[in-house]
Specification:
Radius of gyration: 22 Å
Distance between the termini: 26 Å
CATH class: Mainly Beta
CATH superfamily: YVTN repeat-like/Quinoprotein amine dehydrogenase
Number of strands: 35
CATH topology: Methylamine Dehydrogenase, Chain H
Protein backbone atom coordinates (compact mmCIF):
# COMPACT_ATOMS: atom_id res chain seq x y z
CA UNK A 1 0.00 0.00 0.00
CA UNK A 2 1.41 3.37 -0.96
CA UNK A 3 1.44 5.90 1.82
CA UNK A 4 4.10 8.31 0.56
CA UNK A 5 5.24 11.01 2.98
CA UNK A 6 2.30 10.45 5.26
CA UNK A 7 3.67 7.09 6.46
CA UNK A 8 5.81 8.20 9.46
CA UNK A 9 2.89 9.94 11.12
CA UNK A 10 0.64 6.95 10.56
CA UNK A 11 3.22 4.73 12.17
CA UNK A 12 3.10 6.88 15.26
CA UNK A 13 -0.68 6.87 15.18
CA UNK A 14 -1.35 3.20 15.64
CA UNK A 15 1.66 1.31 16.84
CA UNK A 16 0.22 -2.16 16.68
CA UNK A 17 0.96 -2.43 13.01
CA UNK A 18 4.42 -1.03 13.56
CA UNK A 19 5.06 -3.70 16.17
CA UNK A 20 3.72 -6.31 13.77
CA UNK A 21 6.04 -5.26 10.98
CA UNK A 22 9.08 -5.15 13.24
CA UNK A 23 8.40 -8.51 14.76
CA UNK A 24 7.64 -10.12 11.42
CA UNK A 25 10.92 -8.87 9.99
CA UNK A 26 13.00 -10.24 12.86
CA UNK A 27 14.43 -13.65 11.95
CA UNK A 28 13.73 -16.38 14.45
CA UNK A 29 11.17 -14.42 16.47
CA UNK A 30 8.83 -16.95 18.04
CA UNK A 31 5.14 -16.25 18.53
CA UNK A 32 4.90 -17.21 22.18
CA UNK A 33 1.26 -16.13 22.12
CA UNK A 34 0.69 -18.58 19.29
CA UNK A 35 -2.70 -20.22 19.00
CA UNK A 36 -1.05 -23.57 19.66
CA UNK A 37 -0.94 -22.62 23.34
CA UNK A 38 -4.72 -22.72 23.70
CA UNK A 39 -5.28 -25.96 25.66
CA UNK A 40 -8.80 -25.79 27.08
CA UNK A 41 -11.93 -27.17 25.38
CA UNK A 42 -13.58 -23.82 24.59
CA UNK A 43 -10.79 -22.55 22.36
CA UNK A 44 -12.22 -23.36 18.94
CA UNK A 45 -15.79 -22.33 19.84
CA UNK A 46 -14.86 -18.78 20.78
CA UNK A 47 -13.10 -18.10 17.47
CA UNK A 48 -15.84 -19.44 15.21
CA UNK A 49 -15.55 -18.64 11.51
CA UNK A 50 -18.86 -16.90 10.84
CA UNK A 51 -18.65 -17.37 7.08
CA UNK A 52 -16.21 -17.84 4.24
CA UNK A 53 -16.80 -16.97 0.57
CA UNK A 54 -14.74 -17.27 -2.62
CA UNK A 55 -12.94 -14.22 -3.99
CA UNK A 56 -12.77 -13.70 -7.74
CA UNK A 57 -9.66 -12.58 -9.60
CA UNK A 58 -6.02 -13.59 -9.44
CA UNK A 59 -4.36 -13.75 -6.02
CA UNK A 60 -0.96 -14.78 -4.69
CA UNK A 61 0.37 -15.93 -1.31
CA UNK A 62 3.43 -14.55 0.46
CA UNK A 63 5.15 -15.31 3.72
CA UNK A 64 4.84 -13.18 6.82
CA UNK A 65 2.22 -10.53 7.38
CA UNK A 66 1.47 -10.09 3.66
CA UNK A 67 -0.43 -13.35 3.29
CA UNK A 68 -3.07 -13.54 0.54
CA UNK A 69 -3.04 -10.52 -1.77
CA UNK A 70 -4.12 -9.66 -5.33
CA UNK A 71 -1.65 -10.55 -8.06
CA UNK A 72 -1.91 -6.95 -9.28
CA UNK A 73 -2.53 -3.83 -7.28
CA UNK A 74 -3.98 -3.52 -3.79
CA UNK A 75 -7.25 -4.46 -2.10
CA UNK A 76 -9.03 -2.60 0.69
CA UNK A 77 -11.78 -3.78 2.99
CA UNK A 78 -14.04 -2.76 5.83
CA UNK A 79 -16.42 -4.52 8.18
CA UNK A 80 -19.55 -2.96 9.65
CA UNK A 81 -22.50 -4.21 11.67
CA UNK A 82 -24.57 -4.97 8.57
CA UNK A 83 -22.08 -5.10 5.72
CA UNK A 84 -18.59 -6.17 4.74
CA UNK A 85 -17.13 -4.46 1.68
CA UNK A 86 -13.94 -4.86 -0.32
CA UNK A 87 -12.56 -2.78 -3.17
CA UNK A 88 -9.74 -3.16 -5.66
CA UNK A 89 -8.98 -1.34 -8.87
CA UNK A 90 -12.31 0.39 -9.43
CA UNK A 91 -14.58 -2.46 -8.32
CA UNK A 92 -16.42 -2.67 -4.98
CA UNK A 93 -18.25 -5.75 -3.68
CA UNK A 94 -20.47 -6.00 -0.61
CA UNK A 95 -21.46 -8.99 1.55
CA UNK A 96 -23.99 -9.32 4.32
CA UNK A 97 -21.97 -9.20 7.55
CA UNK A 98 -24.00 -11.87 9.31
CA UNK A 99 -24.21 -14.52 6.58
CA UNK A 100 -21.69 -13.68 3.86
CA UNK A 101 -24.40 -13.42 1.18
CA UNK A 102 -23.03 -11.33 -1.66
CA UNK A 103 -25.31 -8.35 -2.11
CA UNK A 104 -23.85 -6.44 -5.05
CA UNK A 105 -20.77 -5.57 -7.07
CA UNK A 106 -20.27 -2.09 -8.48
CA UNK A 107 -17.72 -0.97 -11.05
CA UNK A 108 -16.88 2.73 -10.75
CA UNK A 109 -16.56 4.34 -14.17
CA UNK A 110 -15.50 7.71 -15.48
CA UNK A 111 -12.15 7.85 -13.74
CA UNK A 112 -8.90 8.37 -15.61
CA UNK A 113 -6.82 5.31 -16.49
CA UNK A 114 -4.65 4.29 -13.57
CA UNK A 115 -7.08 5.58 -10.95
CA UNK A 116 -7.67 3.11 -8.15
CA UNK A 117 -9.52 2.61 -4.90
CA UNK A 118 -7.37 3.47 -1.88
CA UNK A 119 -9.94 3.30 0.93
CA UNK A 120 -13.23 1.57 1.74
CA UNK A 121 -15.39 2.45 4.74
CA UNK A 122 -18.74 1.08 5.83
CA UNK A 123 -21.37 3.27 7.53
CA UNK A 124 -25.04 2.78 8.43
CA UNK A 125 -26.82 2.85 5.07
CA UNK A 126 -23.84 3.79 2.87
CA UNK A 127 -20.37 2.73 1.82
CA UNK A 128 -17.73 5.37 1.07
CA UNK A 129 -14.86 4.65 -1.29
CA UNK A 130 -11.74 6.77 -1.76
CA UNK A 131 -10.45 6.86 -5.35
CA UNK A 132 -7.00 8.27 -6.10
CA UNK A 133 -5.80 9.15 -9.62
CA UNK A 134 -2.52 7.82 -10.91
CA UNK A 135 0.39 10.21 -10.50
CA UNK A 136 0.36 12.59 -13.46
CA UNK A 137 3.51 12.73 -15.59
CA UNK A 138 5.74 15.63 -14.65
CA UNK A 139 6.22 17.85 -17.67
CA UNK A 140 7.67 21.29 -17.16
CA UNK A 141 6.14 22.52 -20.42
CA UNK A 142 2.54 21.68 -19.58
CA UNK A 143 0.81 24.65 -17.96
CA UNK A 144 -1.92 24.09 -15.45
CA UNK A 145 -5.40 25.00 -16.54
CA UNK A 146 -6.85 25.97 -13.20
CA UNK A 147 -5.76 28.55 -10.70
CA UNK A 148 -5.43 27.77 -7.03
CA UNK A 149 -8.26 29.22 -4.98
CA UNK A 150 -7.64 31.25 -1.89
CA UNK A 151 -7.30 29.15 1.26
CA UNK A 152 -10.68 28.29 2.69
CA UNK A 153 -12.68 29.04 -0.45
CA UNK A 154 -16.08 27.34 -0.14
CA UNK A 155 -16.28 23.95 -1.83
CA UNK A 156 -18.65 23.37 -4.69
CA UNK A 157 -21.61 21.08 -4.15
CA UNK A 158 -21.02 17.38 -4.69
CA UNK A 159 -21.94 16.12 -8.11
CA UNK A 160 -23.96 13.14 -9.19
CA UNK A 161 -21.73 11.29 -11.59
CA UNK A 162 -23.16 10.27 -14.89
CA UNK A 163 -22.30 7.30 -17.12
CA UNK A 164 -19.27 7.42 -19.29
CA UNK A 165 -15.75 8.73 -18.91
CA UNK A 166 -16.38 11.93 -20.84
CA UNK A 167 -13.24 14.04 -20.62
CA UNK A 168 -13.66 17.61 -19.55
CA UNK A 169 -12.44 20.11 -22.09
CA UNK A 170 -10.54 22.00 -19.46
CA UNK A 171 -8.99 20.92 -16.20
CA UNK A 172 -11.04 19.90 -13.19
CA UNK A 173 -11.40 22.97 -10.96
CA UNK A 174 -9.08 23.10 -8.03
CA UNK A 175 -10.64 22.40 -4.64
CA UNK A 176 -12.85 25.25 -3.58
CA UNK A 177 -13.27 26.85 -7.03
CA UNK A 178 -16.44 26.90 -9.09
CA UNK A 179 -16.49 24.79 -12.24
CA UNK A 180 -16.48 26.71 -15.47
CA UNK A 181 -18.99 25.78 -18.18
CA UNK A 182 -16.35 23.70 -19.90
CA UNK A 183 -15.90 21.42 -16.91
CA UNK A 184 -18.15 18.76 -15.52
CA UNK A 185 -19.11 18.99 -11.86
CA UNK A 186 -16.34 17.70 -9.68
CA UNK A 187 -16.44 14.46 -7.74
CA UNK A 188 -14.70 14.01 -4.51
CA UNK A 189 -12.90 11.50 -2.42
CA UNK A 190 -10.30 11.54 0.26
CA UNK A 191 -7.87 8.87 1.17
CA UNK A 192 -8.55 7.23 4.35
CA UNK A 193 -7.02 4.68 6.12
CA UNK A 194 -8.44 1.73 6.30
CA UNK A 195 -8.40 0.32 4.52
CA UNK A 196 -9.28 2.71 4.53
CA UNK A 197 -7.58 5.06 4.59
CA UNK A 198 -8.44 7.87 7.19
CA UNK A 199 -6.10 8.19 9.96
CA UNK A 200 -5.27 5.61 12.52
CA UNK A 201 -3.86 2.16 12.05
CA UNK A 202 -0.65 1.20 10.39
CA UNK A 203 -0.84 -1.52 7.83
CA UNK A 204 -0.28 -4.88 9.30
CA UNK A 205 -0.37 -8.28 7.78
CA UNK A 206 -1.27 -7.24 4.34
CA UNK A 207 -3.30 -4.17 4.95
CA UNK A 208 -6.33 -4.99 2.90
CA UNK A 209 -9.74 -6.62 3.14
CA UNK A 210 -11.01 -10.06 3.83
CA UNK A 211 -12.00 -13.32 2.29
CA UNK A 212 -15.07 -15.29 1.39
CA UNK A 213 -17.39 -19.62 -0.33
CA UNK A 214 -19.52 -19.94 -3.51
CA UNK A 215 -18.93 -17.68 -6.45
CA UNK A 216 -21.59 -15.07 -6.33
CA UNK A 217 -22.41 -12.61 -9.04
CA UNK A 218 -20.01 -9.79 -9.29
CA UNK A 219 -17.07 -10.09 -7.03
CA UNK A 220 -13.87 -8.19 -6.73
CA UNK A 221 -11.78 -7.63 -9.82
CA UNK A 222 -8.04 -7.36 -10.00
CA UNK A 223 -7.12 -3.71 -10.27
CA UNK A 224 -7.79 -2.41 -13.73
CA UNK A 225 -9.34 -5.67 -14.91
CA UNK A 226 -12.37 -5.67 -17.15
CA UNK A 227 -15.33 -7.09 -15.26
CA UNK A 228 -16.14 -10.60 -16.29
CA UNK A 229 -19.75 -11.71 -16.78
CA UNK A 230 -19.93 -13.05 -13.27
CA UNK A 231 -18.62 -9.75 -11.95
CA UNK A 232 -21.63 -7.70 -12.85
CA UNK A 233 -23.96 -6.07 -10.38
CA UNK A 234 -26.95 -7.93 -9.07
CA UNK A 235 -30.16 -7.06 -10.88
CA UNK A 236 -31.02 -4.34 -8.41
CA UNK A 237 -27.52 -2.88 -8.39
CA UNK A 238 -26.76 -0.82 -11.45
CA UNK A 239 -23.10 0.00 -11.94
CA UNK A 240 -22.02 3.17 -10.26
CA UNK A 241 -20.73 5.88 -12.50
CA UNK A 242 -17.77 8.12 -12.13
CA UNK A 243 -17.44 11.70 -13.20
CA UNK A 244 -15.04 13.19 -15.66
CA UNK A 245 -11.53 11.76 -15.63
CA UNK A 246 -9.45 13.18 -12.82
CA UNK A 247 -7.14 15.82 -14.17
CA UNK A 248 -3.71 16.75 -12.86
CA UNK A 249 -5.07 19.91 -11.22
CA UNK A 250 -8.04 18.18 -9.57
CA UNK A 251 -8.36 17.03 -5.96
CA UNK A 252 -5.84 14.42 -4.83
CA UNK A 253 -8.70 12.02 -4.13
CA UNK A 254 -12.45 11.65 -4.50
CA UNK A 255 -14.79 10.14 -1.98
CA UNK A 256 -17.56 8.17 -3.67
CA UNK A 257 -20.76 7.47 -1.73
CA UNK A 258 -22.55 4.18 -2.54
CA UNK A 259 -25.96 3.09 -1.30
CA UNK A 260 -25.42 0.11 1.02
CA UNK A 261 -28.57 -1.68 -0.13
CA UNK A 262 -27.71 -1.94 -3.83
CA UNK A 263 -24.33 -0.33 -4.55
CA UNK A 264 -25.82 2.55 -6.53
CA UNK A 265 -23.56 5.56 -6.63
CA UNK A 266 -25.08 8.57 -4.92
CA UNK A 267 -22.43 11.30 -4.95
CA UNK A 268 -18.71 11.92 -5.14
CA UNK A 269 -16.88 14.65 -3.26
CA UNK A 270 -13.35 16.13 -3.35
CA UNK A 271 -11.11 14.82 -0.59
CA UNK A 272 -7.61 15.27 0.75
CA UNK A 273 -5.08 12.57 -0.02
CA UNK A 274 -5.17 11.31 3.56
CA UNK A 275 -8.65 12.57 4.35
CA UNK A 276 -11.95 11.23 3.08
CA UNK A 277 -15.21 10.44 4.83
CA UNK A 278 -15.12 10.84 8.60
CA UNK A 279 -18.89 10.52 9.09
CA UNK A 280 -21.60 9.31 6.73
CA UNK A 281 -25.25 8.30 6.56
CA UNK A 282 -27.84 8.03 3.78
CA UNK A 283 -28.57 11.73 4.23
CA UNK A 284 -25.18 13.35 4.76
CA UNK A 285 -21.43 12.82 4.36
CA UNK A 286 -18.65 14.73 6.12
CA UNK A 287 -15.37 14.77 4.21
CA UNK A 288 -11.89 15.96 5.10
CA UNK A 289 -11.12 17.75 1.86
CA UNK A 290 -8.05 19.44 0.39
CA UNK A 291 -8.79 22.81 2.05
CA UNK A 292 -11.82 22.33 4.26
CA UNK A 293 -13.87 19.89 6.28
CA UNK A 294 -17.26 19.86 4.59
CA UNK A 295 -20.66 18.32 5.27
CA UNK A 296 -22.71 17.53 2.16
CA UNK A 297 -26.38 16.70 1.65
CA UNK A 298 -26.26 13.46 -0.35
CA UNK A 299 -29.64 13.98 -2.03
CA UNK A 300 -28.65 17.27 -3.70
CA UNK A 301 -24.89 17.46 -3.21
CA UNK A 302 -25.34 20.85 -1.55
CA UNK A 303 -22.91 22.03 1.12
CA UNK A 304 -24.54 21.95 4.57
CA UNK A 305 -21.55 23.51 6.29
CA UNK A 306 -17.86 23.90 5.62
CA UNK A 307 -14.92 24.73 7.89
CA UNK A 308 -11.76 25.95 6.10
CA UNK A 309 -8.53 24.23 7.14
CA UNK A 310 -6.03 26.22 5.09
CA UNK A 311 -3.77 25.43 2.13
CA UNK A 312 -1.76 22.59 3.74
CA UNK A 313 -3.00 19.15 4.87
CA UNK A 314 -3.30 18.71 8.63
CA UNK A 315 -3.06 15.73 10.95
CA UNK A 316 -6.46 14.66 12.25
CA UNK A 317 -8.18 12.18 14.54
CA UNK A 318 -11.84 11.26 15.10
CA UNK A 319 -13.27 10.70 18.57
CA UNK A 320 -16.96 9.82 18.38
CA UNK A 321 -18.75 12.87 16.95
CA UNK A 322 -15.71 15.13 17.27
CA UNK A 323 -12.97 15.70 14.71
CA UNK A 324 -9.62 17.10 15.86
CA UNK A 325 -7.20 18.77 13.43
CA UNK A 326 -3.66 19.71 14.45
CA UNK A 327 -2.86 23.29 13.45
CA UNK A 328 0.82 23.65 12.52
CA UNK A 329 2.73 25.73 9.99
CA UNK A 330 3.37 23.47 7.01
CA UNK A 331 0.80 20.91 8.16
CA UNK A 332 1.84 17.31 8.68
CA UNK A 333 4.55 17.59 6.05
CA UNK A 334 6.36 20.23 8.07
CA UNK A 335 8.27 20.10 11.33
CA UNK A 336 6.65 23.07 13.04
CA UNK A 337 4.98 22.46 16.43
CA UNK A 338 1.23 22.12 16.82
CA UNK A 339 0.01 25.42 18.22
CA UNK A 340 -3.72 24.64 18.41
CA UNK A 341 -6.39 22.03 17.74
CA UNK A 342 -9.50 22.64 15.67
CA UNK A 343 -12.33 20.67 17.25
CA UNK A 344 -15.26 20.27 14.88
CA UNK A 345 -18.61 18.71 15.76
CA UNK A 346 -19.32 16.31 12.89
CA UNK A 347 -23.09 16.67 13.28
CA UNK A 348 -23.43 20.45 13.46
CA UNK A 349 -20.13 21.82 12.18
CA UNK A 350 -19.68 23.80 15.40
CA UNK A 351 -15.98 24.60 15.66
CA UNK A 352 -13.74 25.53 18.55
CA UNK A 353 -10.04 26.37 18.63
CA UNK A 354 -8.38 24.56 21.55
CA UNK A 355 -5.02 26.03 22.50
CA UNK A 356 -2.45 24.40 24.80
CA UNK A 357 -1.59 26.03 28.11
CA UNK A 358 1.98 26.44 26.86
CA UNK A 359 3.21 27.64 23.49
CA UNK A 360 2.47 24.35 21.71
CA UNK A 361 1.45 20.73 22.09
CA UNK A 362 4.39 18.35 22.44
CA UNK A 363 4.77 15.93 19.55
CA UNK A 364 2.42 14.66 16.85
CA UNK A 365 -1.33 14.17 17.16
CA UNK A 366 -1.60 10.39 17.31
CA UNK A 367 -4.87 9.29 18.94
CA UNK A 368 -8.13 10.67 20.36
CA UNK A 369 -10.44 8.86 22.75
CA UNK A 370 -13.11 9.88 25.27
CA UNK A 371 -12.32 13.57 24.96
CA UNK A 372 -8.57 13.03 25.41
CA UNK A 373 -6.04 13.70 22.64
CA UNK A 374 -2.68 11.95 22.79
CA UNK A 375 0.48 13.35 21.21
CA UNK A 376 3.60 11.29 20.69
CA UNK A 377 7.32 11.94 20.29
CA UNK A 378 10.51 9.93 20.56
CA UNK A 379 10.55 10.60 24.31
CA UNK A 380 6.97 10.21 25.53
CA UNK A 381 3.26 10.04 24.97
CA UNK A 382 1.42 13.08 26.34
CA UNK A 383 -2.32 13.35 26.85
CA UNK A 384 -4.26 16.62 26.79
CA UNK A 385 -7.86 17.57 27.36
CA UNK A 386 -9.61 17.89 24.01
CA UNK A 387 -11.78 20.68 25.38
CA UNK A 388 -9.34 22.81 27.42
CA UNK A 389 -5.86 21.94 26.09
CA UNK A 390 -4.63 21.18 29.61
CA UNK A 391 -2.00 18.45 29.92
CA UNK A 392 -3.50 15.45 31.74
CA UNK A 393 -0.63 12.97 31.95
CA UNK A 394 2.50 11.75 30.23
CA UNK A 395 4.15 8.37 29.86
CA UNK A 396 7.89 8.24 29.12
CA UNK A 397 9.31 6.09 26.33
CA UNK A 398 5.88 5.05 25.05
CA UNK A 399 3.76 5.45 21.93
CA UNK A 400 -0.05 5.54 21.73
CA UNK A 401 -1.23 2.34 20.14
CA UNK A 402 -4.93 1.52 20.16
CA UNK A 403 -8.06 1.55 22.33
CA UNK A 404 -10.20 -1.14 23.90
CA UNK A 405 -13.61 0.50 23.51
CA UNK A 406 -15.39 -2.28 25.43
CA UNK A 407 -13.11 -1.95 28.48
CA UNK A 408 -12.70 1.84 28.03
CA UNK A 409 -8.91 1.66 28.07
CA UNK A 410 -6.25 3.32 25.97
CA UNK A 411 -3.18 1.23 25.12
CA UNK A 412 0.41 2.37 24.79
CA UNK A 413 3.40 0.41 23.54
CA UNK A 414 6.69 0.82 25.43
CA UNK A 415 9.56 -1.29 24.19
CA UNK A 416 8.21 -4.84 24.33
CA UNK A 417 5.34 -4.04 26.67
CA UNK A 418 1.71 -3.26 25.93
CA UNK A 419 0.28 -0.99 28.62
CA UNK A 420 -3.41 -0.30 29.24
CA UNK A 421 -4.12 3.05 30.91
CA UNK A 422 -7.10 5.08 32.07
CA UNK A 423 -7.50 7.68 29.29
CA UNK A 424 -8.38 10.48 31.74
CA UNK A 425 -5.66 9.93 34.33
CA UNK A 426 -2.97 7.79 32.71
CA UNK A 427 -3.19 5.30 35.57
CA UNK A 428 -1.81 1.91 34.51
CA UNK A 429 -4.60 -0.70 34.45
CA UNK A 430 -2.97 -3.57 32.54
CA UNK A 431 0.43 -4.63 31.32
CA UNK A 432 1.58 -7.51 29.15
CA UNK A 433 4.74 -8.43 27.25
CA UNK A 434 3.98 -7.96 23.55
CA UNK A 435 7.34 -8.57 21.93
CA UNK A 436 6.97 -12.16 20.89
CA UNK A 437 4.16 -11.97 18.39
CA UNK A 438 4.18 -10.59 14.88
CA UNK A 439 0.41 -10.83 14.56
CA UNK A 440 -1.17 -8.50 17.13
CA UNK A 441 -3.90 -6.32 15.67
CA UNK A 442 -6.02 -5.01 18.55
CA UNK A 443 -7.40 -5.29 22.08
CA UNK A 444 -11.05 -6.02 22.91
CA UNK A 445 -12.67 -6.66 26.30
CA UNK A 446 -9.28 -7.09 27.96
CA UNK A 447 -7.97 -9.60 25.43
CA UNK A 448 -5.14 -9.05 22.96
CA UNK A 449 -6.20 -10.19 19.49
CA UNK A 450 -3.79 -11.66 17.00
CA UNK A 451 -3.22 -13.74 13.89
CA UNK A 452 -0.70 -16.50 13.22
CA UNK A 453 0.69 -16.09 9.70
CA UNK A 454 1.61 -18.49 6.91
CA UNK A 455 0.07 -21.75 5.80
CA UNK A 456 -0.97 -22.68 9.36
CA UNK A 457 -2.54 -19.32 10.11
CA UNK A 458 -5.21 -18.90 12.78
CA UNK A 459 -6.87 -16.05 14.66
CA UNK A 460 -6.62 -16.03 18.45
CA UNK A 461 -7.25 -14.07 21.64
CA UNK A 462 -4.99 -13.79 24.70
CA UNK A 463 -6.48 -12.64 28.01
CA UNK A 464 -4.33 -9.98 29.66
CA UNK A 465 -5.63 -10.58 33.20
CA UNK A 466 -5.23 -14.37 33.29
CA UNK A 467 -2.22 -14.50 30.92
CA UNK A 468 -3.65 -17.34 28.82
CA UNK A 469 -4.96 -17.92 25.34
CA UNK A 470 -8.77 -17.67 25.40
CA UNK A 471 -9.57 -19.11 21.99
CA UNK A 472 -8.23 -19.95 18.57
CA UNK A 473 -10.04 -20.24 15.27
CA UNK A 474 -9.98 -23.07 12.77
CA UNK A 475 -7.06 -22.90 10.30
CA UNK A 476 -7.06 -19.76 8.13
CA UNK A 477 -4.15 -20.29 5.73
CA UNK A 478 -2.14 -17.26 4.63
CA UNK A 479 -4.35 -14.66 6.36
CA UNK A 480 -4.30 -11.04 5.22
CA UNK A 481 -5.48 -8.29 7.58
CA UNK A 482 -7.02 -5.15 6.02
CA UNK A 483 -5.87 -1.83 7.46
CA UNK A 484 -7.47 1.58 7.17
CA UNK A 485 -4.88 4.13 8.17
CA UNK A 486 -7.56 6.29 9.75
CA UNK A 487 -8.69 3.61 12.16
CA UNK A 488 -12.26 4.11 10.93
CA UNK A 489 -12.51 1.11 8.58
CA UNK A 490 -10.37 -1.95 8.03
CA UNK A 491 -10.63 -5.56 9.15
CA UNK A 492 -11.60 -4.96 12.77
CA UNK A 493 -13.11 -1.58 13.72
CA UNK A 494 -13.17 -1.13 17.52
CA UNK A 495 -16.95 -1.40 17.79
CA UNK A 496 -17.35 -4.65 15.82
CA UNK A 497 -17.26 -8.17 17.28
CA UNK A 498 -15.60 -9.85 14.28
CA UNK A 499 -12.56 -9.59 12.04
CA UNK A 500 -12.44 -9.68 8.23
CA UNK A 501 -9.60 -11.57 6.53
CA UNK A 502 -8.49 -12.65 3.08
CA UNK A 503 -7.21 -16.23 3.14
CA UNK A 504 -6.02 -18.85 0.67
CA UNK A 505 -7.76 -22.22 0.86
CA UNK A 506 -5.44 -23.82 -1.68
CA UNK A 507 -2.04 -22.73 -2.97
CA UNK A 508 -1.27 -23.10 -6.67
CA UNK A 509 2.00 -24.34 -8.19
CA UNK A 510 5.21 -22.45 -7.48
CA UNK A 511 6.24 -20.47 -10.58
CA UNK A 512 9.79 -20.41 -11.81
CA UNK A 513 12.08 -17.78 -10.35
CA UNK A 514 11.27 -15.66 -7.33
CA UNK A 515 7.62 -14.87 -8.07
CA UNK A 516 5.22 -15.83 -5.26
CA UNK A 517 2.92 -18.81 -5.87
CA UNK A 518 -0.63 -18.18 -6.95
CA UNK A 519 -3.63 -18.85 -4.74
CA UNK A 520 -5.88 -21.41 -6.39
CA UNK A 521 -8.76 -20.75 -3.93
CA UNK A 522 -8.75 -17.20 -2.56
CA UNK A 523 -11.45 -16.59 0.05
CA UNK A 524 -12.94 -13.88 2.20
CA UNK A 525 -13.69 -14.84 5.80
CA UNK A 526 -15.29 -13.28 8.86
CA UNK A 527 -14.25 -14.63 12.27
CA UNK A 528 -16.14 -13.91 15.49
CA UNK A 529 -14.02 -12.38 18.24
Amino acid sequence: MKVAQRWPTWVRRLAFAAVLSLAAATPGMAATWSSSQCQHSGCEKAGTVRWIRPLPGSWTVQNGITGTTPATGQVYGALGAQLAAIGSGLTVSAYRAGTGQQLWTTRLTGFAPGSAITAVRVWPGVVTVGVTPSAPPTTATTPTTATTPAPGAPPTPGSTLWPGPTPATSGTPAPGSSPTPATTPRDGATPTTTGTPTRGATPSAGATPAAGSTPSPGALQSPGATPSPESTPAPDAAPATGGEPVMADGPPRREVVLRASNGHQVRAYPAAQFGGAVAASPGTTVVVGPRAVTSYANRTGAVRWSRPTGPVPLDWQVDGRQLYLAVAAGGYLGSAPVTALRRINLATGAQRLVRPHGSSYDGTLSLAYQGVVVFSSARWAKAYSGSTGQELWQYPNALPDTVDAAAERLYLISGNTLIGVDPQTGTTLARVNAASSSGLYGVREGAVLGIDHGGVGKAWAYDIATQRVLWTSRPLPWPHYFVDLSGIGGSAPPGEDAVLLAVCGKVGPQPAGTAPPSCARPELAVVNR
